Amino acid sequence: MELSVKLQSTSSGQEFPFDFIEEFTPEGESLEVVIPGITAAKIKPGRFLWERFADFLPFSSVDSEVSLGEGNTPLLKAGKLLVAHTGIRNLLLKNETVNPTWSFKDRGSLFCVWMAKAMNEKVTATISTGNMGNSLSAYGARAGLNVLVFVPTFTPVEKILAMNIHGATVLKVGAPDYSLMKNTVLGLAKEFSLRIVSGNGPIRVEGYKLTAFEMFEQMNKTVPDFIAVPTSACGHIRGIFKGYRELYEAGLIDRLPKMIVVQAANNSPIVSAIRQGKNHIIPFSNFKTVAEAITSGNPAGGDEIVQKAKRYGWIAEDVTEEEIIESQQIFARAGLFVEPATATSLMAVKKLRGQGKIDSNQTVILMLTGSGLKDMDVLRKQPQNTVASSLKTIKVDLQGILNSL
Ligand SMILES: *Cc1c(COP(=O)(O)O)cnc(C)c1O
Questions:
Q1: Is the pLDDT of residue 21 over 80?
Q2: Residue 163: pLDDT over 80
Q3: Ligand 1: does its nearest atom lie under 6 Å from the Cβ of 235?
Q4: Stated pTM of the model
Q5: CATH class of 1-99+206-405
């Protein structure tokens, strides 16, 4: 660890030592890693992103054996169908579903596990609706840590089983509301001195920052106009933006992208606040959405995003349950099987294009945050096209199908 690295509150500016390792300030403000000498940071040769961008990282040495090969994900052209659907010609897809546990969370888990090892922790714990727990379970297994995951009852069974097979212990907690459950667990964690890794901690955000560096390389050092991010705990969106901000501070780019905050209409604490020009989130509770990976109704650190949106001219949109299901299908028809939370961004940018907030020739990246395979139940809402056949009827069945194509 670099001793000159500090943590700083993103609202009050109050500083903390790097090994403070709390996820938020005592006042609940988000913390950010401040990299010393960022204006002189240079890109170096190296095989891994963390080698090429070592000047931008808070660790002076890292254990590459803990990596599971996260990152290096494709940045794809969206293709004809999605371009026609959204009316955005330069639409790109950053496919984070091909990470080791099928979501972008892996980039942050690597950093959290590095930190846990550096602090000699034996147990690492998180509260998760699924992907974060799955990811931490895999990286904890890799690093030889005990992993404890608190999940709500609505977490899909696919995600829970994926935690269990890595050897993690899962506590499935019945509660009327996810935020309520989070607060109870956080209180207990204090009592038992158990550090809970959140979706928006400063170290995790450093891992997400590398996504910006990767896209910067993939786009030949150019910057997109917009990046759409389905948002819940807010770690991903602020990590990506921090990456671009640091590239800007280092003089490697001459402008910043604008972020697009995307949420489900049934739970839009941040999008609602941005739309209404508020400075603080508008908490949601007792809601239901198929987009189970974006269900933080009262995210700690959400105010930072609302305030950044104002300061940097970010935009925001929410989407209904029907629009989420429809978007998941359209993505799949374009060859990409994403989970409902991820699907939100497609309809969001289509609507923003319709409102004229995005021009047809601007470059927009959709972050494909997680894979559709981890939530099979929701697929019952999608059209089925399986013909029941047998050796007796297959000839007639096949003839009928071929005639209809
Ligand atoms: C975690 C997650 C999000 C939200 O990211 P935050 O960092 O919590 O804002 C979006 N989509 C998927 C699939 C996720 O797993």
A1: no
A2: yes
A3: yes
A4: 0.96
A5: alpha beta
